[in-house]
Write a structure and sequence with these properties.
The complex is a heterodimer of chains A (525) and B (395).
Chain A: E1 4-10, H1 14-25, E2 30-33, E3 45-49, E4 52-55, H2 66-71, E5 81-82, E6 87-90, E7 96-99, H3 103-113, H4 115-139, H5 151-166, H6 169-180, H7 183-188, H8 194-202, H9 217-229, E8 238-239, H10 244-256, E9 260-262, E10 267-273, E11 276-282, E12 287-295, H11 299-305, H12 314-322, E13 329-336, E14 355-358, H13 362-373, E15 382-386, H14 388-391, E16 401-408, H15 420-437, H16 441-444, E17 445-451, H17 453-460, E18 496-498, H18 512-524
Parallel strand pairs in A: 1-2, 1-12, 2-9, 6-14, 12-18
Antiparallel strand pairs in A: 3-4, 5-8, 6-7, 10-11, 11-12, 13-16, 13-17, 14-15, 15-16
Helix pairs in contact in A: 1-10, 1-18, 3-4, 4-9, 6-9, 8-13
Chain B: E1 3-4, H1 8-11, E2 20-23, E3 26-29, H2 37-45, E4 47-51, E5 56-61, H3 65-72, E6 85-91, E7 97-107, E8 110-115, H4 120-126, E9 133-136, E10 141-147, H5 151-158, E11 171-176, E12 179-184, E13 193-199, H6 203-214, E14 219-221, H7 224-233, H8 277-286, E15 290-297, H9 299-307, E16 324-328, E17 331-342, E18 347-355, E19 364-371, E20 374-383
Parallel strand pairs in B: 1-3, 4-14
Antiparallel strand pairs in B: 2-3, 4-10, 5-8, 5-9, 6-7, 7-8, 10-13, 11-12, 12-13, 15-18, 15-20, 16-17, 16-19, 17-18, 19-20
Classes of the chains: A alpha/beta (525), B alpha+beta (395).
Amino acid sequence: MAQVWDVVVIGGGHNGLVNAAYLARAGRKVLVLERRHVLGGAAVSEQIFPGFTFSVFSYVVSLLRPEIIRELELPRHGLHILPLESTLTPLPNGDYLAAWGDPDLTRRELYRHSPRDAEASVEFSRLMYHMARAVKPILGMIPPDPTSLSPAEVKGLFALGGHLRSLGAEHFHALYKLMTMSSADYLDEWFEFGPLKATKSASGIIGTFLGPRSPGSAYVLLHHYMGEIDGAYRAWGFCKGGNGSVSGAIASAARSFGATLRTNAPVRQVLVRNGRATGVVLESGEEIEARVVVSGLDARRTYLDLVESKELPPELLEQVRRFRFRGSSGKVNLALSELPDFTCLPGVGAHHRGAISISPSVEYLERAYDEAKYGEFSRRPYMDIVFPSMIDPGMAPPGQHVASVFVQYAPYHVNGGWTDAKREAFGDAVIDTLSEYAPNLKTAILHRQVLTPADIESTLGLSEGNIFQGELALHQLFFLRPAARWASYRTPIRGYYQCGSSSHPGGGVMGAAGRLAALRILAET
Amino acid sequence: MLKTTPFHARTAPLVLGLTWRRWAGYAVASVYDWLHDREYAAIRNAAALIDVSPLYKYRISGRDAARLLDRVVTRNIGRLAPGRVTYTPWCDSRGKVIDDGTVSCLAEGEYRLTCADPLLRWLHQNAFRMDVQIEDVSEALGALALQGPLSRAVLEEVVESPLGPLGYFHITRNRIAGVDVEISRTGYTGDLGFELWVPAANALGVWDALTTAGSRYGLTPAGIWALDIARIEAGLLMADVDYTSAHRAVAESQMSTPYELSLDHAVALEKPAFNGREALAAEQASGPAWRFTGIEVDWVSFEALFTARGLSPSLPTVAWRTSVPIYRNGRQVGYASSGCWSPLLKKYIALAHVRAPHFAPDTPVEIEVTVDHERQRAGAWVRRLPFFDPPRKRA
């Protein structure tokens, strides 16, 4: 008789792996099925050019939940986070704005541009510390349904209400503003130096089809502050070996608890009998029986592709159909013979060990968004660049380097659709823009990989190439992620759960959804 | 690189043991010599020269300069005449102390504020619709503290116009080595002393004149370790060591009011309105929950703890800046925030926050002491501050 698994997890991304690790740790017999030849989903390291290792998609670790690092003992399984501390914003006038790891140096640098901003920045960080503290318990909470009267949900709401009251008026009001304002407007309340506002507001547009002046972008800004603030665990940085090592460590933990991880095993469908999930069938036709099926895929795949629509209520199908993905970012990975030499800060320096942000002004970012709004990629895009080989020399041959360039905007719905020619034109726009700040870049390129949202979708299965498995918009968060009444990792099909970033608390290499889903499954089955 | 002060070219060769520390983004000497004993002795016995340039300094001028300062600080600036200096804390609207420092009235409508932390943003926020110019002169001005019983004698040798009877907390203009300087009868040592405010570009000439003239008076450059002992003896508190700025504190329990810091004399409740006035008036009526006070460790009880383990008493060589619990009748009633052995008073002393009603002078308390890696409690007394208050301080 064929083996019956306690749990089958569809998708070996970081959330699927976290989910599997927690379930295996609790003694369940767990099988993870990954479509690709490599585990990790968007957190993978691959040698796409001989001798050069790339974090092909996600490229830094900022939000990985400390409780996951602790409970799964990830450092023992190879997680080694290296510091990534500075941000350099080169400016068109030949100057620059830098935020260094050291507070005194950062203050002095900001003071050069605006004495008032130098002080405001300290206060702003303190507020963000409070905001991250305010949001932290919410990240670790299964969202209660505010419309339900069931005792468990009401208890959850009381806990949430108590928590919000404990913030105090000042912080509650700040949180409310962050939830509703645009990042540019919010930052206008604090700062006066344009490039500083632009660089900070860039955190509010990442992975989202919003401009810095679009309401709602302030929340995305906060989302990116959550991990950064968690100094106690130093969960902000670059993972040795690239982001594939994050997945590798979680996979190793899962295996150590007895989970089985299969690659090259694409799932065609979830088997449902009498409203209850009974297993999955692979593309190969192989059937696998399981008491519980968990989908780590995004909401569109989880509800619309993996199960027959007759199994789900039409209201939910409608909500999922309207769930917004709209991938807005691309990625350019470069193998380099030498580091880019920035005109504003010549030579090789500390800035190469941090991020380079192409965000000279809020207007620049907003203009980049304008092009995307009308279906074109940004000719002069926002970019967030890191040189992983400067932090982990093992990423490239000695003396040579890899660059990871996150680019926005590259809309999924581009006019005329993405073609090979358009992809390369997009790559050229990125290199041309970057070359304005570092003229030696073009001659240093040994290999170039350009990824559009269409490539992200076809390679990883992320709908419309959205890196968060759905936009982090207020109407798609907390008890509405991915759909009202179904934000608690359950689905209407008994024994079928979701654990991806389409569910609370959303994307980034966080793992929170995988863990919370596992806790829910352990409590119910 | 950390910033260096305008005197760095002179101080750097004197630092024998690479004993640099950070202060407001600057590198300054913890100690110049191998030990700080001689530097401390110079403060109390001869004259010491201390580079205090990293202080933040703001020049505030214009029609509403006094109005702005009166809104920000707790002292009455309207009453501060030209040529006078005052020490004051400043608070947020809850009456919690943000920082403390001095305000000098340089001329009618012209002031200089010194502080430990940057304050430009707060000043601008408070200056809304006021006719006032706020200039950050932190880097433009070097500052030297010339402290000790012979400091006046040294200074009189170098000033180009007679110093005159420059009184305690007075300030005047003068020239040294051809450089225009301001000289205030102030300091952070509780001794006779002066602070010199020098244009950064010409700072070295002033240093050279002082050290040359001072060599006949035993003038000794002194670092922060020596200064720290002197200021504890003088009962002077230090921001971010003895209390947490309301702008840095994360929880309200970490903040302090001027009354809790025993700065009653620096709160002018008679002023019509200033930041925190309402909260402070209420607190004055009800009495503060805490007081900042001196602690003197009972030597007999302290020594007995060591003797019981076959050890001689072990004293800290430099001042400590950690939180140390204070107990009374077995319960914690406060915490010391700085402490040291006073080489002058021959007492083990500390500065502490003590809860009501345990802060009355001479109340017997206990202080935590680590003896042979074990936590013990030694007897101690609450003492009135300052520990050291020589008549020459005000002379």
